[in-house]
Design goal:
The protein is built from 26 helices and 11 strands. The protein has about 750 residues and is an alpha+beta fold. The strands form 3 sheets. Strands 6, 7, 8, 9 and 10 form a 5-stranded antiparallel beta sheet that branches. α9 runs parallel beside α11 and α9 runs antiparallel to α22.
């Protein structure tokens, strides 16, 4: 592989005009496709194999005019202090608002609070339910504006009015902190390279890669039913790995220049060596992201595949566009150890005889490996302790900032009707096989009323055929509580007895039940997913490192870092530690997809640092250095770059903490802290300590396995053989002088 990539790098350097033209054409094509693509249709959220989804599908079939997937809004009215919503003037205002809302072109129904019994016992709060015939993502801006205008007119009459539901659903904003993250990455690159031009190359290529990836997602959004979070994740991962992969190629290029090679040769060798690490690091990320399909949640699968595509583009750009741009840059990209005239007058960055920080740190670890190993493990173990209290759920309006109308509507409904009113359960009774459907509906309602933690059970509402009915159940606890989850399971358990007595099937659905089923499905899929992803990557790393213990150590180190990161997420988003600093206004359960998502993404990113750092050690070892010295050599050449790469990734991920969407905020924080734990504690401390303790045993591989495995030559040994075969001593001297 090293020889093939070496030739590819030289070819891209020589044919830079052609390579640059190809990438510009791809970017233009993707941009035109995104601009001309139809607006995305409804973004379905289906969870195959769950009871909530089965009930939802049954509603679509038996209640065809119900628009079960249509957007909903709750317009919540609160009377001024000392007044009630039943007062004549307030009642007239509400009824006028209901009439105004019902004129909307996409509105299918508006429930009058006074006819629907939607006035609180105290009389201070009432709400009108608005149903639309399209989903929240499909809803026209004019419908949203009409909804907000109607609420504003009621406010002008003296009422407090807030709007809940998904009708006001909008694409999440990431805020200016995303730009700050990219700016921080630029600063780190300038410090690392000592050159504005060299620092600009990784940023430019990463932006091009993300531009192609996100534009392609936008172009295919309507066809493939891609949601707004799909492009956000692709941007997050694409920027991080795009900058890092380019950083490793440019760093190796400058190192090759420092050894006296000409620029085309240096570009070829940079792609042949660091490029090999980029390929395998990218493969681990792609495996982890595509592996999300094993969870069998379509939305998660699409997010993973789209992000994996963006990572693949980042790898291809690093292998081709970077050497092409280095050809354009010429002598403006200086050898390692030199700064540009602008930043350092062209002088050497540091004395050649002085060991760099990476060398000094690795030497310290090699001298005291056991102490460093224990401190690292104990530290990560302490950080992981909060993960033992992990509670999972999906965000609802109760997790929105208090500045939003959705959150204020949520709080007002809780105040007037109780916390469980924001998470009603919909019970679907399928009595098609029952001899007496009406008796089955009545029996179901009576059984549910007898359960604990139930506030209200509405009468059954049958369909036109009379074979299916819906019953609304109001719990006495908020939607994300353990009590509500237990109630869902209790209703389902009672359904077994109802089926035995009446031959009617009882199903529980609704947003709350769907969230519970999603959490359970994700929990059930976590272990199989972990086995699949870690197993495939373990086999891949055996091929890369030609060792059993090094990949095993890499996988165990990853488990430590991901558990510590989950602990940090629990501490901030569930316990509320530093919540003000992170902009977390409401603590609560951790997003249910967070553990499996972090396992996938963090594993891929963790293996990036493992591959980049340890391949340098392996390269030194196979070229004759002792194991302990190979560890120091790996850090001498790789620690500075890996540190810069980790800081850049943390900056990019941390930029998404400013998002208005709680899910994006949590993902940004979780990935940023996971990169910190993995890069600076696992890869920079635990890995060299373990390798120092293992010595030669770290690189042991059974002979039979050594014969079977393909030789991918990540260390570039084939390039040395290529030199000995094709370059005579006089030519080599000329190359060195050049």
């Amino acid at each position: 592989m090293a020889t093939f990539l070496y030739k590819l790098g030289r070819l891209a350097f020589r044919r830079r005009h052609f390579v640059a033209l190809i990438w510009v054409a791809l970017l233009t094509l993707a941009g035109v496709g995104a601009a001309s693509a139809p607006a995305p249709g409804t973004t379905s959220f289906s969870i195959p194999g769950t009871e909530a989804q089965k009930a939802f599908d049954l509603l679509e079939e038996r209640f065809p005019g119900m628009s079960a997937d249509g957007a909903t809004a709750r317009v919540v009215f609160k009377a001024p202090v000392g007044e009630k919503m039943t007062d004549a003037e307030n009642k007239a205002t509400v009824q006028k608002t209901v009439k105004e809302l019902s004129t909307g072109s996409e509105v299918t129904s508006v429930a009058d609070p006074y006819q629907a019994g939607a006035v609180s016992k105290s009389g201070s709060v009432a709400y009108a339910s608005v149903k639309y015939d399209v989903s929240g993502m499909e809803l026209q801006d004019s419908s949203r504006e009409a909804l907000q205008d109607a609420a504003e007119h009621a406010r002008d009459a003296g009422l407090t009015v807030e709007i809940g539901g998904d009708a006001l659903q909008a694409t999440p904003e990431t805020g200016s902190t995303e730009i700050i993250g990219i700016a921080m990455a630029a600063v780190v690159l300038v410090i690392t390279f000592g050159s504005l031009l060299a620092a600009g190359l990784p940023l430019l290529t990463a932006i091009i890669g993300v531009g192609i990836g996100v534009s392609s997602i936008a172009a295919l959004a309507s066809t493939l039913d891609l949601g707004s979070t799909t492009s956000t994740l692709a941007t997050m991962i694409g920027l991080a790995v795009g900058i890092d992969y380019a950083l490793f190629i440019v760093s190796r290029y400058r190192a090759e220049l420092a050894e006296g090679r000409d620029r085309e040769e240096a570009a070829g060798r940079a792609v042949g060596t660091a490029g090999s690490a980029v390929v395998f690091a990218g493969l681990t990320v792609v495996i982890a992201l595509v592996g999300l399909a094993v969870v069998n949640i379509p939305m998660l699968t699409k997010m993973g595949v789209a992000a994996a595509g963006t990572v693949a583009i980042a790898v291809l750009i690093a292998l081709t566009l970077i050497p092409a741009l280095l050809g354009y840059a010429g002598r403006k990209v200086r050898p390692a150890g030199q700064k540009s005239k602008l930043l350092g007058g062209g002088r050497a960055a540091e004395k050649a005889d002085r060991p760099n920080m990476g060398t000094r740190w690795a030497s310290f670890v090699v001298r005291r490996p056991l102490a460093v190993l224990l401190v690292g493990i104990v530290g990560l173990g302490a950080a992981a302790i909060p993960a033992t209290s992990l509670e999972l759920g999906l965000p609802d309006d109760g997790s929105q900032p208090t500045s939003t109308t959705q959150r204020r509507a949520y709080d007002t409904l809780s105040e007037g009707f109780g916390p469980g009113f924001n998470g009603p359960l919909m019970v679907v009774v399928d009595a098609k096989g029952s001899a007496d459907p009406e008796a089955a509906f009545a029996e179901t309602g009576d059984r549910i009323k007898a359960l604990d933690n139930v506030v209200t059970v509405t009468p059954a509402t049958p369909n036109k055929a009379g074979d299916t009915a819906t019953i609304t159940v109001i719990p006495d606890a908020k939607p994300s509580s353990v009590t509500t989850e237990e109630l869902v399971h209790s209703i389902r358990d009672a359904g077994a007895g109802i089926a035995a007595d009446t031959d009617a099937e009882v199903l529980v659905t609704g947003a709350t039940a769907m969230n519970i089923d999603v959490s359970q499905k994700l929990n059930d899929a976590l272990i199989p997913y972990l086995i699949l992803v870690v197993g495939l990557a373990f086999l891949l790393l055996i091929v890369v490192f030609r060792s059993i213990l090094v990949p095993l150590k890499a996988a165990l180190g990853f488990l430590l870092s991901v558990m510590a990161a989950l602990g940090a997420v629990v501490a901030v988003f569930q316990w509320g530690w530093l919540s003000g600093l992170m902009g977390v206004e409401e603590t609560g359960p951790v997003m249910s997809m967070m553990p499996i998502f972090m396992v996938g993404v963090v594993f891929g990113l963790a293996m990036d640092y493992e591959v980049f750092l340890v391949t340098r050690m392996r390269e030194a070892y196979v070229h004759g250095e002792k194991p302990s010295q190979a560890v120091v050599t790996g850090f001498k050449y790789g620690a500075r770059v890996v540190t810069a790469a980790a800081v850049i990734m943390m900056a990019v991920f941390a930029g998404f903490i400013g998002s208005s969407e709680s899910m994006i905020k949590m993902i940004g924080f979780g990935l940023a802290i996971a990169v910190f734990f993995d890069a600076f504690i696992v890869r920079m401390a635990i890995v060299p300590a373990v390798l120092a303790l293992l010595g030669k045993r770290a690189w042991w591989l059974p002979k039979w396995l050594d014969r079977v495995l393909p030789n991918v030559d990540v260390e570039g040994e084939g390039l040395r053989a290529h030199d000995r075969k094709d370059v005579d001593p006089d030519e080599e001297k000329e190359l060195v002088r050049a």
